[in-house]
Amino acid sequence: MPQNRDGSFLSDSMKELLGPGVGQISFERMQELNRLMSYYRCAMMEVVTKFNVLNEQFSLQFDRNPITGIKSRLKTLPSILEKLERRGYPFSLESIEENLNDVAGVRVICSFREDVRMLSEALMQQDDIILIERKDYIRNPKPNGYRSLHMIVSVPIFLAHEKKYMRVEIQLRTLAMDFWATLEHQLRYKKDFDFASDMEKELFTCAHLSAELDERMDGLRQLMQQQNEQAASAPGEKPLRWTDQSHNLR
Ligand code: 0O2
User: Fold this and answer.
1) Nearest CA to ligand 1 atom 22
2) Nearest residue by C-alpha to atom 7 in ligand 1
3) Residues with a CB atom less than 6 Å from ligand 1
4) Are 171 and 149 in contact (CB under 8 A)?
5) Cystine design at 66: which of 47, 100, 115, 152 (Cβ 3.0–4.6 Å)?
6) Is 80 left (phi over 0), alpha (psi -120 to 50) or beta?
């Protein structure tokens, strides 16, 4: 690890965050930072559990899993400091909580666009979740073609003697959206590579293709759903509806 001129191993922003001096004060601040990060981790786990529960319920209803994968990540300390600096926020624990919405992130990969809508609505119906911000890049894709539904939510975590609300960034997207975003991210951040404008255009075209793929897969899903409903309501057949199943579970 590179050593600073004053002999310490900490960057200036890190020193500001952890407080002046070494020894007791910094150690206590370090513990506070660890505590804060563990709160974010707990909030992330709460959100992941909520989606796992919804997946379980919807898979009973529709006989397929709306969620194909859930990823979660905590922002690293260097990346937290970089963002505070870039946005001109103070380097303090309070500032992290107050100004950064994406320290804890959960990404939910869905099969279809309809699943994104269904899951986001079901989550927002839960009375312990507070919506802070919602950005619908599916209805309004970014200029480069990026699509996903972003939500910043505040979720309670239950500690030994208190209930604390923590913010989590949720990204909901389909497999096709995730495929494009993952590769775009890999290409864009490739070191020592200049991203030419014709490559930007090609990526944008790929984004269009992925949106078309989603649309066509949604069409197929609707068709299958209609056929299922027709078969279920045919004479002698009992339609399998959510109300029936929830009744059975009581
Ligand atoms: P990481 O490592 O994924 O977290 P914000 O920084 O969130 O306050 P902004 O730009 O308004 O500010 O946030 P926005 O638009 O909601 O996007 C934040 C995250 O969405 C990014 O996080 C990416 O994960 C994803 N994202 C947004 N735009 C793009 C894009 O064009 N391509 C790809 N591949 N992903 C995108 P981070 O912080 O960049 O990184």
Assistant:
1) 102
2) 102
3) 101-102, 105, 135, 142, 144, 146, 150, 181, 184-185
4) yes
5) 115
6) alpha
SS3 state of residue 148: coil
Pick from 162, 32, 48: nearest CA to 104: 48
> 227 burial class (0-12, 13-18, 19+ CB within 10 angstroms)?
exposed
Tell which one of 142, 146, 184 to mutate to probe ligand 1, the residue whose CB is within 8 A of the most ligand atoms.
Answer: 146
For 118, the 3-state DSSP assignment is helix
Other CB atoms within a 10 A radius of the CB of residue 92 amount to 16
Closest ligand 1 atom to Cα of 142: 31
Q: pLDDT 10s per residue in the chain (250 long)?
A: 444 544 455 666 666 666 655 445 577 888 889 999 999 999 999 999 999 999 999 888 877 889 999 999 999 999 999 999 999 999 889 999 999 999 999 999 999 999 999 999 999 999 999 999 999 999 999 999 999 999 999 999 999 889 999 999 999 999 999 999 999 998 887 666 666 778 889 999 999 999 999 999 999 988 888 888 888 777 665 554 444 433 333 3
Tell me the whole-structure pTM to 2 decimals: 0.84
- Domain regions of the chain by residue span: 12-176
Give the distance (Å) from ligand 1 centre to CA of residue 152. Answer: 12
**Dihedral sign (CA 79, 154, 94, 90):** positive
Q: Any idea which fold 12-176 has? A: Beta Polymerase; domain 2 (3.30.460)
